[in-house]
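Run: sequence + protoporphyrin IX containing FE -> complex structure.
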Amino acid sequence: MLTTTEKRSLSRLSTVDTAKVVAKVLLPILARGAVIRRPRAVALAQRLDLDRRAVRLLTRLRERYGDAPLRLRLPGRDLVLPLDSSDAHEALARSPEPFSPASLEKRHALGQFQPEGLLISPAEQRAHRREFTEDVLATPYPVHPQAADFTAIVAQTVKPLLSQPELDWPAFTRQWWRLVRQVVLGTAAAGDDLITDRLFALRRAGNWGWLHPRETKHREMFLRHLRGAIDRAQPGSLAARIAENHPGPDIHPESQVAHWLFAFDAAGVAVFRTLALLATHPEQETKALAESAGSAPDSFWELPYLRGCVQESLRLWPTTPLILRESTVDTTLGGHEIGKGATVILFAPYLHRNPAGFTPEIWQDGTAHFHGALVPFSDGPAVCPGRNLVLLLTTQVLATLRREHKIGLLTRARLRPGRRLPSVLDHFALRFALTRRD
Ligand code: HEM
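>> structure
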């Protein structure tokens, strides 16, 4: 007969299965770049449909080992992989204690450019940094108080893209970063490519985790540059809201803003992938267009169906494929024992795999909410505080791009209604044709 402890122990994987999870689930994500994506690795991942292989492996392991989280012992690391959506949900709901978002891996990788960032903050500093962040980003509100300023920035930065017959990633991303710098730092930062280039270089170092030495000198140059831009507090930007907030000495706004700039990269990717979905799914495109055309000027900022489209792109191709938590004490997850210092890994492509198609309505009709583990923006007390701002800006960009132009996908990407969608979508390779609507 099993003892209580045995009943509650995790499914410890065999050495062979551990090697398979490392090779098929973890390494492909790290090879693509956890902090900044590597284009060639993303192209290869799409070609080999790597996330589908990873999901298939985890499905097989669940059949063999059961629903309890899988446990992998690697030299010096104790990894726990919840497969059941309620266990995944519990790990996020019980953050930051006993499941801290500030895992060792994140402290190494993100510490390259945001040493005092909220996500990697120790428990003592987390609460007031979170409060500051929520305040400036207006976390609970679908429409940010500065929405009018931001929409004007969107209109002005998207306009040059509309005069070209084609749209590709390099052209889009140039304008996207102009937009982001203005929203975050103000119009004076519109052309400040150096600030984002410095961040990109530090993110590339961050991709290597603890294998890369700390870029202390470059980090200091970047943070000083960023501090100068924040201190200008230009009206209409988030920097102006930071100034109104009078942050205390322990907030380190430049570290917080470094995270925001970094995270806006994922939002640009989401715009491009959503554009590809809409270009290939006429039924959803028609609904989204009808929603924007039918919106009164004062509700034009909300666009719930289009928000659902963006969330679908993030569900189908999560920009944070691994959400990590670290146990701060000996505890349990789903009733199973977890030792202090274990890394809990939520593998979003597995948790997000149903439904298989493009279904924006699940974000409106409550299905996504009841699923419990559709977590493109994470969940619980450390849920992404930028979620609403992201959905506001991405939907405004998408609506502006498509208002007077029909957008067709030029890339062959196997995106067809009713067909299985690819498990990885290489956004770097997407190209679109723009034609004026009659
Ligand atoms: C498509 C765009 C984005 C997605 C999918 C996204 C998703 C996420 C996810 C999954 C997390 C949890 C990470 C973890 O626990 O390891 C997170 C955290 C966070 N995000 Fe976002 N994010 C996006 C954009 C943004 C933007 C633009 C901002 C700021 C303007 C932002 C601010 C933050 C912050 C500050 C945290 C840390 C929260 C905490 O530790 O309490 N995010 N985001």
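>> summary
Residues 1-7 have pLDDT under 50 and may be disordered. The pocket of protoporphyrin IX containing FE is lined by residues 101, 118-119, 130, 133, 137, 259-260, 263-264, 266-267, 270, 314, 319-320, 323-324, 376-378, 382, 384-386, 389-390 (CB under 6 Å).
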